[in-house]
DNA sequence: AATGAATGAGCCTTCATTCAT
DNA sequence: AATGAATGAAGGCTCATTCAT
């Protein structure tokens, strides 16, 4: 049977609450009770919807990844030149929906979680690979394959590093600076032809 | 009274076990019991030495940071030119003692922990600032102040990003590649004068 | 929402078990586990209902005080003359529901607990004051205010003292003797007009 | 071998610390560590001297009882008439060395402890009986045996009750009032011949 | 659909106690 | 005599999870 709209709404509330709670705490060591309370429902209902804490975690992760993927797709749809495509991917990474203190922390938590949880690792890998192939595809018209691979890896590292560092800044994250850093890296790679 | 050598040894065992356990689990949500058992002592003794779980965590963090600082200092002592100084810092970041799967994960865990724990945040900031000033000092002979600040931030992001990404790779981290990436970033910044 | 009858029953079971356990042990140093087991429920459920050990203690104390207050009220309702009112209060103090070895010990434990626990002290004071004003009110028709205050205090001391002493007697407490002692004190005060 | 004076001093320090700690806490649920620390020695030394927590408790109790017995004996030595003997016993009960907030609480704690600890009960009974026979002996010249027994019991209850009640008063205990209450009780019994 | 009741497991922590020095 | 090291046991409490309603 199809999910009722009420169910969809409840599920979404719970995922939102999970991101918030996990992000604030900077850890998965949060109780289902707290998440459920925040989402305005009983613990038992959260279990009913997601089957368990693991379900909540995986579903929350999936939500974050899906949102990011949409952001990327939307950006790519409006881009025509390779450079525009690259800029779109970078911009998507720091889009408003993602680049907020709490959400950043949640991202990092999931990164770490994937480190020891196979299902989480699988989930993350799917998106990681897709992003990587997006980057390489956009770079191939601009350089040879070897350079493209290195540049993609470097850019991805730059993006992730900016994520981590901005999350830590007391003054809060700044998407503009992060994007500028990444694009600067990219421009330098393009200008120098990746000569190492 | 001075710490006896047996106490020092026990404390170190426990810190090592903590890094291992936290790193493997990718989380601070590990029991003191597991850490203590791994270190070959009773839970109660761990409390006797560290006062509590928080004490263990903070002390473990301090150990990691101190070890990194030593690595940096050792590298800087052998460096003469600015470029060598920069390379030394980068290399220290991926030194063998740090850049191992488990240790990397522990680093990230502490990063996240600082996110919600003031004492951890203070501790981390001390080292973060020192590293930053090391980078800027080494860059100032090579470019103007504004560029130096941007480059330092970018290089730090590149280092952290490489950390995160290498931790996730199924094939395990590769210090050589990470160092190459960071040095490439640096060279490009130097060559182009940071023109954005 | 109103407390379900099952909840009320469970709560009462736990309070009864608490009185028993605390009374037998003569101390608050009893484990929640023991109380809960005796009440036929899990430790976790005890926490669910009472929020913690403190909650159990305070609620148990409240129960004891409430029961005593009811006993007093019931006695006063049947009394018409001042002397009858005084006798009623004395009798209530040694009523069957209160004057049993275990319960007496529990009373003393709570007395002592109030000594170092502000919430317990507050709770106890409310009842102490009410009892005192009951005594003084009943005495005022029989003597002047100054004497009434002294007599009330003396009678209260006599009641408490009988409590303590009877609790200690190997042969167990004897309500009749205790009541006789207290009434004798009272009669002497009335006969001599409290001349000191 | 005889106890060295150093040992005697240490033991006394520990007993004093025990009275203080137990009295403040209003409970035997205090750690040996706290007592020992307060007495300025290590936990292990406390064990060395007293054999265990039980030893500390019993010895502390014994100290309190002995001190009280001395106070009584000293008072009786100066008394010549039966009335003076009775007054001496009452006064000893509220002597400065005993009637202080902390000490009172400690007394009550031990009373309760005797409730469930045979050794403590035995100890207490010895003194209880001696006090009782002191009272009866002093009363026999003034009334017949039956009345003397009742009066002794009543006076003892009055003393204990005053103890309990004064310990609880926020304004602190007042020895003068307590003594007056007890002597008033006694005078009334003597005047009326204990006619019940 | 939704929730309170209920619990076993586990965690952090403290404690009384012993032992080697 | 005196102490730090060391531990098994126990306690209060929380949590993920199930179940009956």
Structural account:
Four copies of one chain form a homotetramer. Chain A has 196 residues and is mainly α. The first copy, chain A, has one domain (5-192): Orthogonal Bundle (Tetracycline Repressor, domain 2). Helices cover 78% and strands 0% of the residues of chain A. The first copy, chain A, has helices at 5-25, 32-38, 43-50, 53-77, 82-93, 101-116, 118-139, 145-168, 175-192. In chain A, α6 (101-116) packs across α8 (145-168). The longest helix of chain A has 25 residues, at 53-77. The radius of gyration of chain A is 18 Å and the shape is elongated. The model of chain A has no long low-confidence stretch (mean pLDDT 92). Chains in contact: A-B, C-D. At the C-D interface, α6, α8 and α9 of C face α6, α8 and α9 of D. The structure holds a DNA duplex (21 and 21 nucleotides).
Q: Which regions of chain A contain 5 or more consecutive residues with pLDDT less than 50?
A: none
How far is the first residue's CA from the last residue's CA of chain A?
Answer: 58 Å
CATH class of chain A: Mainly Alpha
**H-E string of chain A:** HHHHHHHHH
Short summary:
Four copies of one chain form a homotetramer. Chain A contains nine helices and no strands.
Blueprint (SSEs and pairs):
Four copies of one chain form a homotetramer.
Chain A lengths: L4 H21 L6 H7 L4 H8 L2 H25 L4 H12 L7 H16 L1 H22 L5 H24 L6 H18 L4
Chain B binds a DNA duplex (21 and 21 nucleotides) through helix 1 and helix 3.
What keywords describe this structure?
homotetramer, 196 residues, mainly alpha, Tetracycline Repressor, domain 2, 9 helices, DNA-binding
């Amino acid at each position: 049977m199809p999910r009722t709209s009420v169910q969809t709404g409840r599920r979404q509330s719970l995922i939102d609450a999970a991101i918030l709670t996990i992000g604030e705490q900077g850890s998965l060591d949060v109780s289902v009770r707290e998440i459920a309370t925040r989402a305005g429902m009983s613990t038992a209902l959260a279990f009913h919807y997601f089957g368990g804490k693991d379900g909540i975690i995986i579903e929350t992760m999936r939500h974050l990844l899906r949102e990011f993927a949409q952001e990327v797709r939307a950006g790519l749809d409006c881009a025509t030149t390779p450079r525009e495509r690259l800029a779109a991917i970078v911009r998507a990474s720091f889009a408003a929906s993602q680049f907020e203190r709490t959400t950043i922390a949640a991202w990092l938590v999931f990164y770490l979680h994937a480190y020891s949880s196979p299902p989480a690792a699988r989930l993350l890998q799917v998106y990681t690979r897709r992003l990587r192939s997006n980057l390489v595809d956009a770079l191939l018209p601009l350089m040879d394959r070897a350079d493209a691979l290195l540049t993609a890896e470097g850019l991805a590292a730059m993006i992730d590093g900016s994520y981590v560092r901005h999350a830590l800044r007391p003054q809060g994250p700044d998407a503009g600076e992060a994007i500028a850093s990444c694009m600067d890296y990219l421009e330098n790679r393009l200008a120098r032809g990746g000569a190492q």
